[in-house]
Protein 1
Amino acid sequence: AAGVIQSPRHLIKEKRETATLKCYPIPRHDTVYWYQQGPGQDPQFLISFYEKMQSDKGSIPDRFSAQQFSDYHSELNMSSLELGDSALYFCASSLSGLNTEAFFGQGTRLTVV
Amino acid sequence: DQQVKQNSPSLSVQEGRISILNCDYTNSMFDYFLWYKKYPAEGPTFLISISSIKDKNEDGRFTVFLNKSAKHLSLHIVPSQPGDSAVYFCAAGATQGGSEKLVFGKGTKLTVNP
C-alpha cells in the first residue's frame, strides 16, 4: 500500500539559507500535518491543511510557511535557517473526519550548519 | 505546558513478559488517543487508538486502557518481543473545537531483552 512520501530524506543547509520540504500524502487523504522533532524531543505540531486550506497552526516560526496544493501534496518552506532548526520534520496524512489515525512519512532530517 | 505526559523515558522488560507503557494527559477536551511506535530514522507508525467512549481496545498483542477520570491511558504489550524495542509515543486529539492536530508525549523507549 502507498504510504506518505517525504522528500528529501536528508538535507544539509547553511545558516540563513532556505529549504523546501515536500510531502505526498496517502492517495485520497485530504489532510496533511507537519511536525518537527528535535533531538530527544517529542514531535511538535507545526501546521496542518485540510482541502488545501490551513486548518490549524501550532508552534511554527514566522520564518516558515507551508501550503497544500491541488494534488494534496504539501510543501514546508523554511527561510533564514538557524542552527536550532536542525531536526526531523515529519509529515502525516489522514482522511478527513476526526478520530482517524494519521499516518506518518519517514521524515526529512534537516541539518543546519 | 506538557498536555500529554509520558513520565518514563525508558522501560526494559524480558522477552515474553508484559510491557506497560503509561501516559497521562491534562486537557479534558481530549477524546481520542493513539499510540505510535517509532524506530530510529523512521517516521512514527500508528499502533492502536482508543476513543473516550471506550475504556479498552485490543488488537492482537496490544491493548490500550483508558481511565478518563484519572486522565490516564496505558499500552500493554503481551507477550513482549525483541522486535517491539522502539520508542512509543502517546498522542491525543480533541474532536470538538475544530482542531485536528495531535499532541504528543515525549515518548518512552522500550527495550525488550531476549
Protein 2
Amino acid sequence: GENVEQHPSTLSVQEGDSAVIKCTYSDSASNYFPWYKQELGKRPQLIIDIRSNVGEKKDQRIAVTLNKTAKHFSLHITETQPEDSAVYFCAASKASNYQLIWGAGTKLIIKP
Amino acid sequence: NAGVTQTPKFQVLKTGQSMTLQCAQDMNHNSMYWYRQDPGMGLRLIYYSASEGTTDKGEVPNGYNVSRLNKREFSLRLESAAPSQTSVYFCASSAATDNYEQYFGPGTRLTVT
C-alpha cells in the first residue's frame, strides 16, 4: 500500500526566513497531494494542494512543488511569520481511492 | 453552514465502558472519515464511508465500529473502551468527486482510565 514519509519532524526558522518541508510517497498511482496545517488544539485545515498534472502551485507565501519521477513533493513557506507556527501534514491519494495517506507531521517553530 | 460538527467535545470513560461519538456534516458530502490522533503523532484512519450505505476499515479499526446513518451522519462506537483508545478523535468529510479536500470537525478528546 501507499506510504508517505515526511521530513523533518521539527523545523525551527528565524522569522522572515523560508521554510521547506519534504514528503516522499511510494505509490506511483497517487495523483493528489494536499498539505494541512494544524495549530495547537485545533483541527487540521487544508492550506494548499496539487494534482499530478501540475509541477508547481503557489498561493501568496506558500508554494508546493511536485516531482513525479522522484515521487516527492515539498511545501515552501517564504517570509515566515509567527502565525506560521504549527504542525504541517502532507498526504497522498489516488482518484480511485477515497483515502488520504498521511505523513507523520512537521512541527514548524518560528523564532522571533 | 456549520461544516462538520462532533459531539461530545470531551469524554472520560472507565475501562470497559462503551460510548458513541457522533459526527454530522451539512455540506452534502459523499465521503466521511474517522481518525484518531495520539499526542505528537499524525492522523490514523479508523474507518471511512466512501458513500452513503458503505463503510470500510482503515489503518486501525480494531476496537471500533461505525454506522453511516444517512448522508449527513457517521458515528463511531467503542464497545469496550481500553486505555489504549485514549486519543483525540476527528471526523472529516469530503465531496470526493472532483474535490478531494477533507474538512475536519473540531475533535473529541477521549480519556479512558
Protein 3
Amino acid sequence: DTGVSQDPRHKITKRGQNVTFRCDPISEHNRLYWYRQTLGQGPEFLTYFQNEAQLEKSRLLSDRFSAERPKGSFSTLEIQRTEQGDSAMYLCASSLASLTDTQYFGPGTRLTVL
Amino acid sequence: QKEVEQNSGPLSVPEGAIASLNCTYSDRGSQSFFWYRQYSGKSPELIMFIYSNGDKEDGRFTAQLNKASQYVSLLIRDSQPSDSATYLCAVISGGDDKIIFGKGTRLHILP
C-alpha cells in the first residue's frame, strides 16, 4: 500500500454513460497525476495538478475527459459519454513537488465500457 | 512524437544470472530517466532514477545512462524469481512537464 487510494477499484458501464473516479493522494504531496494504461502498454499521461491548479493536459485527451482537484486534496476524473475505447486502467499517482520526485501510484480503477 | 522504445519480451533469465533490460528514447533533450517495476495486476513502483551519464547502483540494481547514444539500461544482478515482472522505462522529455513511459519489458526469472 503506497498511501494513494482510488475509488472505485472497478467500474462497468454502458457506452454513452458518464463515469467519475476519485483519487486520494498522500497527504503532504502537492503533485497529483492521472494516467491511463491498457494491456501491454505503459502508463499514458493524461493530466497533472500542482496543488489545485491543473498545469498540463495531454493533447490526446478529448473534451470528454475532465479532472478537478478542489482545495488541492483529492482529485476526480470524469469521462462523459463513455466509448468502448475508454476501457482501461486509470491510474493516479502523487509526488511531493516536482516531476523528479518519486511518484507513488494508487491501485487504479479498472473501467470496462460495454 | 517523442518515443521511448523497449523490447516487449518476454526476457527469460535463469535464477542467479544477470538480467539486462534496455531502453532507447527519441528526444535528445531528455534529462531524467526512470525504471519502474510493475507486477502483474499491480501498479508501477519506482526502482531507479538516473540523470547523469554513467552508472548508478542500488543494491542488486544498476542503471546505466548514455545520453550520446540515447540509451538507458537496467541490470539486475543475482536475479530472483521475485524479480519476474514488467519493467517500464520512463523519460522526462526536454520541454515537457510530464513523464513518457515505454511499453515495458516482461522479465521472467527461471527457477
